[in-house]
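Sample intake sheet
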Amino acid sequence: ECRFDDPSRTLEVAEVATAIAERLEVRDYGSLMVQDLQGRAWSHLANARRLVSDLSGASEALEVAAKHLREGSGSALERSFLLRMQAAVLRDYRRFDEAEARVDEALALSRAEALEHEVGMSLMAKSSLLGYQGDTEQEIAYLQQALFLIDPEREPRVKLIAVHNLAAALHKLE
C-alpha cells in the first residue's frame, strides 16, 4: 500500500519481505511455494527500486525473481506479475517495444488462465505504456477495459488510479 505514497518506505518494506522470503523453509512450505514466494518478493523489490529510480538495481532484482519463478510452480499469476514488473522497468528505460512485448505476454497469459484481475492489471500497464508514447486514444481504450476487470475489493487504490488516469487522458483529448 505504501508504494503509492512513500517510495523510500516501499523499498524498506520490500527489502524486509525479500529477507523473510529468502528464509522460508522448504520443509514447511514445499519447494515450489517457497520459490514462488521468493520470486514475488524479488519482483516487489524490483518495483520498489524502480520507484526510487534505481533501474539497475531493479533489473538485478528482476533477474533474481525470474530465477526463482523458473524453479517455482509455473503459476500464471506469478509469471504475469513478473512480466508487468519487467515491462515497467523497460518502460522507464524507454525501451518501449520490449516493454510492450512483456505486457502483451502478461495479458495473453492472464487471459488464457481467466485471471480477470490480472487481465485488468495488464491492461492498465498497457495503457500506461501507450500514455508514455503519446497514444492517448489507445490509452483510453485500454483503461476503459481495465476498469471492468480490476477487482476494487482486492486493490481499491488501483481502481481509483485507473479512474484518475482515464479522466486525465480524456482531459488531454478535451
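Comment: The mean pLDDT is 94. The radius of gyration is 16 Å.
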